[in-house]
Design a protein that fits this description.
8-stranded mixed β-sheet; 3-stranded antiparallel β-sheet; Alpha-Beta Plaits; Methane Monooxygenase Hydroxylase, Chain G, domain 1; 11 strands; alpha+beta; flat; 2 domains
């Protein structure tokens, strides 16, 4: 182990100075300063200080143990010193790995990571089977949301007679929702024998998933003259009337042509509020992508491209295998994942995509 290089790579004074400066700023914060950014920076430097200090302490122990090996003839002391060196080397490796993960996470922190999100799922190729798959994906994300203590509310949906979804849009409210789910956007593909298939032939169907960061009124301001609001009676599968009042709301944004709707509650005002929230998030996402495309630093657009990639994942039922094509990794617990056990999969995908983007930057 190159102790001199470790000393050079993990100097603590600069980190300590930065940490203390941020602590001072936090205790004397003024109006107009970005509290969220300051808190994020302080958390990063506090963790970096902790792990670097641990490495520095381990270096001292390593040097003390080496001195014992050089100066002592006591077999018991020599044995203890060798064991200490072995333990310290393992500890330093663990701390270096922690620092690496910390720096990767900071490098790929999105300003929207701590936001709630809008989930949109649409059935693609495959007819009724695609709509049933869309419903399974929605239930998967719904259960995952509940496991994380998030709230989920449907904004709009189009249900088929077979119980699937042609389309479902929902708001997921909670901490770090966008951070956890942002790489779920793209085309999801399922391969299995549909219940309606008498010959036992495997069908391939698709559904698209979009994850948008929730936009607040302060992020996107919509002028009343820029939109048209239509109200109508809500309807369900097969045209069945859900209620007898004009509670459903559709909003058209003239400049972009974006149309959103909501009919999930019996109250027009609530539906309008949800539809406006959806419109803001769509406009915010459009703005995000336009800004990413303009940047000279290609990392943002690479991340955006990864999020919008076609056929990001395949759910193969005959082989009980889920494969994410972006990170070239598979998992063999398809039923558990579709029931909402997504934690390991999403973590693996986040780590894999970020490591790949780091390689591309070098």
């Amino acid at each position: 182990m190159d102790i001199q290089m470790l000393k050079t790579n993990y100097q603590i004074e600069e980190i300590k100075t930065k940490k203390e400066a941020l602590e001072s700023k936090m205790s004397n914060i003024h109006n107009g300063e970005n509290m969220s950014q300051l808190s994020s920076d302080l958390n990063y430097y506090s963790q970096l200080y902790f792990h670097t200090q641990s490495i520095q302490n381990s270096i001292k122990k390593y040097e003390e143990a080496e001195n014992i090996l050089k100066e002592s003839n006591d077999k018991e002391l020599i044995e203890l010193a060798n064991q200490e060196i072995e333990d310290v080397e393992e500890k330093i490796k663990e701390e270096e790995e922690s620092i690496k993960k910390l720096k990767i996470e900071r490098e790929f922190t999105d300003v929207d990571d701590n936001r709630s999100a809008i989930l949109e799922i649409r059935a693609g190729a495959g007819g009724d089977e695609a709509s049933l798959f869309a419903a399974e994906l929605f239930n998967m994300y719904k259960n995952f949301a509940l496991k994380n203590g998030w709230e989920i509310q449907i904004i709009d949906s189009s249900v088929t007679e077979g119980g699937g979804y042609k389309e479902v849009i929902a708001h997921i409210n909670g901490k770090n929702v966008f951070k956890k789910l942002k790489y779920e956007s793209g085309v999801h593909r399922v391969q299995r024998v549909p219940v309606t298939e008498s010959s036992g032939r495997i069908h391939t169907s698709t559904a698209s998933v979009a994850i948008l960061p929730e936009a607040k009124e302060i992020d996107i301001q919509i002028n009343p003259e820029d939109i048209r609001i239509d109200v109508m009676r809500a309807s369900g599968a097969g045209g069945q009337c859900v209620n007898r009042t004009d509670s459903a709301v559709r909003i058209t944004h003239f400049e972009t042509g974006i149309v959103v709707s909501c009919q999930e509650t019996k109250h027009q005002a609530q539906n309008k509020e949800k539809a406006m929230a959806l419109l803001r998030s769509r406009l915010y996402e459009k703005k995000r992508q336009e800004e990413a495309d303009k940047r000279s630093n290609m990392r943002s657009s690479q991340i955006g491209g990864g999020m919008r990639a076609e056929k990001i994942r395949t759910y193969n039922f005959p082989q009980n295998r889920i494969t994410d094509h972006r990170v070239k990794k598979s998992w063999h617990n398809i039923e558990e994942v579709l029931s909402g056990d997504l934690e390991k999969l999403t973590n693996d995908v986040i780590d894999g995509i970020q490591l790949e983007l780091l390689k591309n930057e070098k």
